[in-house]
Design goal:
- With 146 residues, the chain is of the alpha/beta class.
- A five-stranded parallel sheet has the order 3-2-1-4-5, with helices on both faces.
- Helix 1 links the parallel strand 1 and strand 2.
- Helix 1 crosses helix 3 and helix 4 crosses helix 6.
- The radius of gyration is 16 Å and the shape is globular.
């Protein structure tokens, strides 16, 4: 089974990665596509960049830094994964990656948005994926804080 595992370097991402590893320890035979989606370059960045490749390189470097904590956990556990760093709208980018990598499932964290924050930000990426993904999406709740 190939699982898309979006991460962003946060504690929630590490929690998701640990949950994925727990599934593997309990017998799930899986490999992972460890993905980070970078925001696309702003109009200002595009216009002022002397070399557009610099913007792309910076996004790639930032993405590599953000997936490294989760990648280290997977490497330490001997679990197979491939990194994918892309830019664009997170939900659309992940839907594309599901097809490109022929993923069987998505495992991602669910960020709890309050009603006011939901009105401001709109629907969360996880909710959009649950609705639009052609494969099952497993949402990992944040750890309970004491």
């Amino acid at each position: 089974m190939k699982i898309l595992l979006p991460v962003d370097g946060t504690d929630l991402s590490l929690h998701e990665t640990r949950f994925a590893l727990q599934l593997v320890r309990e017998g799930l035979q899986a490999s992972f596509v460890l993905v980070n989606v970078q925001a696309p370059a702003s109009f200002y960045e595009i216009v002022t960049a002397h070399d557009p490749a610099l913007i792309e390189d910076a996004a790639l470097e930032a993405g590599e830094d953000l997936i490294e904590p989760s990648a280290a956990l997977l490497r330490e556990a001997g679990v197979t994964f491939e990194p994918a760093i892309v830019s664009g709208d997170p939900a659309h980018a992940m839907l594309d990656l599901i097809e490109i990598h022929r993923c069987d499932m998505v495992l991602m964290g669910e960020r709890a948005l309050g009603p006011i924050q939901r009105m401001i930000e709109g629907e969360s990426v996880s909710r959009r994926l649950v609705h639009d993904s052609p494969v099952p999406v497993l949402l990992v709740k944040p750890p309970v804080e004491d």
